[in-house]
Amino acid sequence: MSDYRIKGETGEWEVVIGLEVHAQVTSNAKLFSGAATAFGAEPNTQVSLVDAAMPGMLPVPNRECIRQAVRTGMAIEAEINKWSRFDRKNYFYADLPQGYQISQLYHPIVGEGSLTIEADEKAGLPEAKRIGIERIHVEQDAGKLMHDQHPTMSYVDLNRSGVALMEIVSRPDMRSPAEAGAYVRKLRSILRYVGSCDGNMEEGSMRADVNVSVRRPGDEFGTRTETKNVNSVRFVMAVIEGEAKRQVELIESGGTVVQETRLYDPDRNETRSMRSKEDAHDYRYFPDPDLLPLELDDAFLAECRDSLPELPDAKRARYLAAGISPYNSDVLTAEVEAALWFDNLLDAGAKPAPAANWVTSELFGALNRMGRDISDSPVSPAHAAELLGLVADGTISGTIAKAVFEKMLETGDGAAAIVEREGLRQTSDTGAIEAEIAKILTANADKVEQYRGGKEALFGFFVGQTMKAMQGKANPQVVNELLKKALG
Amino acid sequence: MTELTNLTVAEIRDGHRAGDFSAVEVAEAFNANVAGAKALNAFIVETPEHAIAAAKAADADRAAGTLKPLSGVPIGMKDLFATNGVQTTAASHMLEGFVPRYESTVSAKLWDAGCGMLGKLNLDQFAMGSSNETSYFGNVISPWKRKDGGNAALAPGGSSGGSSSAIAARLCPAATGTDTGGSIRQPAAFTGISGIKPTYGRCSRWGIVAFASSLDQAGPMARDVKDCAIMLENMAGFDPKDATSLDLPVPNWEAALSSDLKGKTVGIPKEYRLEGIDPDIDAMWDAGIAMLKDAGADVVEISLPHTKYALPAYYIIAPAEASSNLARYDGVRYGLRDLPQGAGLQDMYAATRADGFGPEVKRRIMIGTYVLSAGFYDAYYTQAQKVRTLIARDFEQAFGMCDVILAPTAPSAAFGLGEKMADPLAMYLNDVFAVPASLAGLPAMSVPAALNREGLPLGLQIIGKAFDEQGVLNAGLAIEERAGFTARAEKWW
């Protein structure tokens, strides 16, 4: 249970959050027309006759969009409705050419499911929590109005008109901004694993309507507001924090929360009212008579299920079982690209736990420095496995490994080749090491006295000196043993 | 030349094929008739050049031995079908001047089959009407006159009134129509011609300006049953661009035409016997029953118990769909835009739609909006859908006992223009016999069967099982052969 509370003047308040996430379906064509869907195209260049709602035009469902919605539903272990139907949501707006949006009100394609957010103490999530998902339905996106093109007129860009969206509706199961943030991140991760949405929030591929209400802990739900089209995890959390505070202040000063739609202004970090329930549209939903009910057969469902990859939770469990730390398991499974890269590393023979440490520290550090994604890492999983193998079998030390990795990044060469070329193979030649130790102990007789007198911290000094004398190539374990013997 | 315009589609096709005349001669003859019939106001746009171009191509194809199924046949196109490069208005001010850059599937099929286009035919605005009096481009006048010494202008029926008037007046041998609740059958009955609404889904709706999507269905109108079969063969077919299109092969209806009804059973629905109906209608119906018996059919009485709910259900479902289908006419992207000085978006919508839609269209948009509104939806729309299901079941059960159903097409002969415009309910009643088959998605046709005492044509309706256009056409042919309907309107225009 979250202990997130708003401290009002009259006591503590709990916040109740539900999210409706709109995720653009990854597909080459729109939901009901053959038009393309690429982001950033010139205005009105990806508009078919259907998208522009020319007279006599008809929608035809795009099978790929349906397939992606079903696969997504399977990924959140939801009930898949073999019979679903499209409804029209009627309202007038200049970005809505048909005068209605084709959506699914009465019979969505995906029913009840859930996802789990992991514990994360630092983020204020003391334990893992299951968040219910009420439904997923598919619907058309609208176009975009542009108000900055002309002093007195607005322009319309219909490129997005008709693009397929999944609306993923959560239960009001979240109780803190952190839970909501974790939910959006987890959902995004699952969508990207499944490949049904690229999860790109800046480009608007994923955005959330944030439903917030407050109540005394344990009371009935309060009246909620809905803040529309919030397009980052940070903003989702900021909206909840701000809106919960606003509602508490409103109630405590004698007001009542009205059910309304609000808009978030990221520049001022505040929400403002868009329209109240009284002004709410009557959308006059009814079944779209241009479309037959959508019926899914077993073969289609089987194909959808068989095409699902290993999902984040399963992968995380596998990593934990392989001895990878919970933290590393979380980090490695969050982004599908990293997880796939890491799996390739394991396939190439790397040992799970050290490999996980190396990826999350060395590799991510290097990529961060270079400003590159793991998908275009200059070092391949095979090369990385070779490097880790050299450490594991004692050929090089961890310190040398860092240097070899730098060379790998610079040259693109394999680890073994670099070690050979640069003569970095670590030595376990006790004779050579003992000779160096003897020299160092002689040169630092005072410190030897101190050590023997009980200042054991000096041991590290002798290790460092020996490693330095050996140009880092001495096997640290051998050095430790020999030093201990020599220092008595 | 004038006798060329008396030929049927089959006669033109066969005569052209045999070299009796050129396609250009045929096109010129019909073009001349069209040009000389302005008084009927059957066309919104005349396209003589289109007809001539197709005719030249037909003549060239004949010379090259590459004739198409309808080479040399010029037709009229209801102005509800989008025609590439030719104004398409749905008889509305809203779409006045709208020139699509695409061709409806049905019209494209006809052009591919070799047809030429004489023009775009007038209709009730957005196909909403039963008398062709709601067109923005003026009433269509029927070529028929009552033999009562008067000179009243009569309705050609609707919504396909331009099509019916033009065919009856020999301005074209055949035309396309669309039927949502009788818009092919009732005008055919009013003007003494034939017309068939096929099973819902036979003809693609792609490129047809939508009225009520779950009911709209294209079909041919022509002078006889055979021509209807020929035309329908060249209009029907699966279209992946229409999700409600039937994925079935198109039968060779013309080749399988047969008026021998031995072994067939004809159902007579007792609920269609209306109190106080014009005795001429009942007499025609009884004559029709006798004709089908004569053709070898058995006749049984059947019951379609929910018939009386069909019309109210239709006038909920069709306006509901229309209110949504017509939302796209908003002045934003094409068609009329009425933008008063200083107006915002809402003002533009209001002004554009107030100006662009006629009173009947507005009435149906308002009815449709009302029945879909929160709080009324279940009482109206949901209820009407239940009625629709019951009506479909009535037919299913009836077809357990019979192969086709015979009934009048309309409850009266053509009425005078203006006679019913003041009373929308009286107008809606015109569709009382036509609407049930529409709600059930069944094939149905009207064939001319008799003249009433005023000398006006009356039509009989044959309703068939889903996909059984052949049964409908065959029964229609049996009536046609026995009714010997040869009457035609005397030329006054």
UniProtKB/TrEMBL annotation, chain A:
<keyword id="KW-0067">ATP-binding</keyword>
<dbReference type="GO" id="GO:0006412">
    <property type="term" value="P:translation"/>
</dbReference>
<protein>
    <recommendedName>
        <fullName>Aspartyl/glutamyl-tRNA(Asn/Gln) amidotransferase subunit B</fullName>
        <ecNumber>6.3.5.-</ecNumber>
    </recommendedName>
</protein>
<keyword id="KW-0436">Ligase</keyword>
<feature type="domain" description="Asn/Gln amidotransferase">
    <location>
        <begin position="340"/>
        <end position="487"/>
    </location>
</feature>
<dbReference type="InterPro" id="IPR014746">
    <property type="entry name" value="Gln_synth/guanido_kin_cat_dom"/>
</dbReference>
<dbReference type="InterPro" id="IPR023168">
    <property type="entry name" value="GatB_Yqey_C_2"/>
</dbReference>
<keyword id="KW-0648">Protein biosynthesis</keyword>
<keyword id="KW-0808">Transferase</keyword>
<comment type="subunit">
    <text>Heterotrimer of A, B and C subunits.</text>
</comment>
<comment type="similarity">
    <text>Belongs to the GatB/GatE family. GatB subfamily.</text>
</comment>
<dbReference type="Pfam" id="PF02637">
    <property type="entry name" value="GatB_Yqey"/>
</dbReference>
<comment type="function">
    <text>Allows the formation of correctly charged Asn-tRNA(Asn) or Gln-tRNA(Gln) through the transamidation of misacylated Asp-tRNA(Asn) or Glu-tRNA(Gln) in organisms which lack either or both of asparaginyl-tRNA or glutaminyl-tRNA synthetases. The reaction takes place in the presence of glutamine and ATP through an activated phospho-Asp-tRNA(Asn) or phospho-Glu-tRNA(Gln).</text>
</comment>
<dbReference type="InterPro" id="IPR018027">
    <property type="entry name" value="Asn/Gln_amidotransferase"/>
</dbReference>
<dbReference type="InterPro" id="IPR017959">
    <property type="entry name" value="Asn/Gln-tRNA_amidoTrfase_suB/E"/>
</dbReference>
<dbReference type="GO" id="GO:0070681">
    <property type="term" value="P:glutaminyl-tRNAGln biosynthesis via transamidation"/>
</dbReference>
<dbReference type="GO" id="GO:0016740">
    <property type="term" value="F:transferase activity"/>
</dbReference>
<dbReference type="Pfam" id="PF02934">
    <property type="entry name" value="GatB_N"/>
</dbReference>
<dbReference type="InterPro" id="IPR003789">
    <property type="entry name" value="Asn/Gln_tRNA_amidoTrase-B-like"/>
</dbReference>
<dbReference type="InterPro" id="IPR017958">
    <property type="entry name" value="Gln-tRNA_amidoTrfase_suB_CS"/>
</dbReference>
<keyword id="KW-0547">Nucleotide-binding</keyword>
<dbReference type="InterPro" id="IPR004413">
    <property type="entry name" value="GatB"/>
</dbReference>
TrEMBL record, chain B:
<feature type="active site" description="Charge relay system">
    <location>
        <position position="78"/>
    </location>
</feature>
<dbReference type="GO" id="GO:0005524">
    <property type="term" value="F:ATP binding"/>
</dbReference>
<feature type="active site" description="Charge relay system">
    <location>
        <position position="159"/>
    </location>
</feature>
<dbReference type="InterPro" id="IPR036928">
    <property type="entry name" value="AS_sf"/>
</dbReference>
<feature type="domain" description="Amidase">
    <location>
        <begin position="26"/>
        <end position="473"/>
    </location>
</feature>
<dbReference type="InterPro" id="IPR004412">
    <property type="entry name" value="GatA"/>
</dbReference>
<dbReference type="Pfam" id="PF01425">
    <property type="entry name" value="Amidase"/>
</dbReference>
<comment type="function">
    <text>Allows the formation of correctly charged Gln-tRNA(Gln) through the transamidation of misacylated Glu-tRNA(Gln) in organisms which lack glutaminyl-tRNA synthetase. The reaction takes place in the presence of glutamine and ATP through an activated gamma-phospho-Glu-tRNA(Gln).</text>
</comment>
<dbReference type="InterPro" id="IPR023631">
    <property type="entry name" value="Amidase_dom"/>
</dbReference>
<feature type="active site" description="Acyl-ester intermediate">
    <location>
        <position position="183"/>
    </location>
</feature>
<keyword id="KW-0808">Transferase</keyword>
<comment type="subunit">
    <text>Heterotrimer of A, B and C subunits.</text>
</comment>
<keyword id="KW-0067">ATP-binding</keyword>
<keyword id="KW-0648">Protein biosynthesis</keyword>
<dbReference type="GO" id="GO:0016740">
    <property type="term" value="F:transferase activity"/>
</dbReference>
<dbReference type="GO" id="GO:0050567">
    <property type="term" value="F:glutaminyl-tRNA synthase (glutamine-hydrolyzing) activity"/>
</dbReference>
<dbReference type="InterPro" id="IPR020556">
    <property type="entry name" value="Amidase_CS"/>
</dbReference>
<comment type="similarity">
    <text>Belongs to the amidase family. GatA subfamily.</text>
</comment>
<keyword id="KW-0436">Ligase</keyword>
<dbReference type="GO" id="GO:0030956">
    <property type="term" value="C:glutamyl-tRNA(Gln) amidotransferase complex"/>
</dbReference>
<keyword id="KW-0547">Nucleotide-binding</keyword>
<dbReference type="InterPro" id="IPR000120">
    <property type="entry name" value="Amidase"/>
</dbReference>
